[in-house]
Amino acid sequence: MENSLQTDGTGDQGTVAVTQTETGNNTDTAQSGGGLIAPQLSNNNMRDVNIVHINNTYVKSAARTDETDAVSARTEENIVQRYQAELKSYLLNETKDLFQGTEENGSSTSLKKIYTELYITEGDSGVNDEEKKIHLNKIFEPLSNGENPPQRVLTKGIAGIGKTVAVQKFTHDWAEGTANQNIQFVFPFTFRDLNSMKDECFSLMDLIGNYFKEVKDLKTSDYDDCSFLFIFDGLDESQFPLDFNKNKMCRSVTKKTTLDTLLTNLISGKLLHKALVWITSRLAATSKIPLKFINRVTEVRGFNDEQKEEYFQKKINDEVVAQKILKHLQSKPLRSLYIMCHIPLFCWILATVLQSLLTDTPETELPKTVTEMYTHFLIIQTKRKQQKDYEKGEPDKDLIMKLGKLAFEQLQEGNMIFNENDLKDCEIDLKQAAVFSGVCTQIIRKEYGLHRQECYSFIHLSVQEFLAALFVLETFIDSGKNLLPSPTWTVTSEIRENSIILLHKNALNMALESNYGQWDLFLRFLLGLSQDKNQKLLHKVFGLQGTHLQNSQETIEYIHKKIKKLSNYDKTINLFHCLNELGDQTLVEQVQTYQSSGDVSKISPAHWSALAFVLLVSGDDLDVFDLKRYHRNKVLPRLVPVLKAAKKAV
């Protein structure tokens, strides 16, 4: 490595240059006829330098200043390294455990012990080319020689697929020093936490310093010199307008502005233009970010079959029980649930439920729908309470309804995180609940947000959506009150008998009109909970009203009509899941007849959507999808889910 000193004069003054090469030989030069007395370099430290006489002008060398600057630079570098080490230590501790509900002993599971690698692909795989699998820790690396590394990455995936766990694993590996060490600072944020500050103004330095106190003393110059990664998890939970067109430009890390403005300037590359940005989102909400600001889109696809088996073995520990569960899931009646096990969150809930059912009540009929699975999950938490033999406590029905009220009201506001006052507004005393009820502590977890203050959330958004649907339905059954918005009707005694259909239609319209799919799972749960099987379970365990609701045929026909008109394939597939909750397979059975006959030329639009659903849940490996067989352009949008699931389309 070369070390050099140059002292520049002005006018006719000469330049003195001293160079020490790697071999240690000195090459001394003087220009403009000046005399030279060369300084000596030893062990990369500058010794005393004499006054140099050049063209009768005396120029004092700045070596002393350079030495001071060098020491200062090294000191600053050491300070930055100390901040980095402190941040890594904090993040390592925050990410070492994977929270999967609340274990009975109050502890969580080691991330390293339970983590199963997720299947992640680049872009919208399966449409034109073979999918490109990408490792989690390489999402900011070029996939081929000559390709520029991406600076801003958007990772999408359905609810519960593992996006947040992916962020946790990425952050943990960086903090541990095993990956992405070219990045000096990683700042993981969640939109659900940032929502609580959406009306406040910050500078970027203030935001980071408040959130990560370990680096609050970073200097302005450090933001120019260091490499940063900003992670924003859960775009679908964002309450920010993210107005990229109207927000003012902000290029200074010290300028105070709205949090929305900070976000849009960071994401667009105007603020800290060299910084890396990683955003995660449910599929429907990705449109909030203009694609021109994104360099790479990845998708978390969850677990493949091999990874599902690996997860069950890790989660259950007992190989015999794990294999018994896998055998049940892979049987034809439960195949659709096994397909859904590519979602890690569902995998965990299913493992929890089936392990309990097969161990405690082996003769019980196993759940066949998502709603049945979540209903049993809620029941299991109640059984844990009973096993602990709590002497007192409010009835389960009252507590479940309070939790449901909290879930629904917060869902309406778009909140996935709340404080103790929100709990009190719903008459939930968390301290008392922790003593007297296993239900509450198994469903609500404590978090630490900005300034490390206590806040709360449901263990997953899908659990919040389930409880919200349960609250809306039970409120209707108990009082006839429809909590869903409907400007065209009110409940009266004359139409009370048919109003469950109106409740269903309200929920359907809410889901179809939502831009980001925030009511999709709520709708599935509401319809599923309306079925007799789940009503009987709820009545037996929780003492809920438990009533026989009238036939769902009118709701089924309404969904059929919507499927024929819909062009949004994500919403269409969700409606087929809704039909599955209602026990209706007519469209699916009809398209299976068409498919087996080999004649697909007369299939209606609704049947094309059904075909997509059939192919997705068939259990057959979609290594190659023969697109030529379904060549009509107008039906291709309805087959997009199949194209995405296939590894290659021809």
From TrEMBL:
Cellular component, GO annotation: cytoplasm
Keyword Cytoplasm: yes
Ranges where the NACHT domain occurs: 151-282
Localization per Swiss-Prot or TrEMBL: Cytoplasm
Main location per the UniProt record: cytoplasm
The keyword Amino-acid biosynthesis appears for this protein: no
Top-rank taxon, per record: Eukaryota
A single GO molecular function term of this UniProt record: ATP binding
Alphabetic keyword roster: ATP-binding, Cytoplasm, Leucine-rich repeat, Nucleotide-binding, Repeat
The protein's name in its UniProt record: NACHT domain-containing protein
Taxonomic source organism: Lates calcarifer (Barramundi)
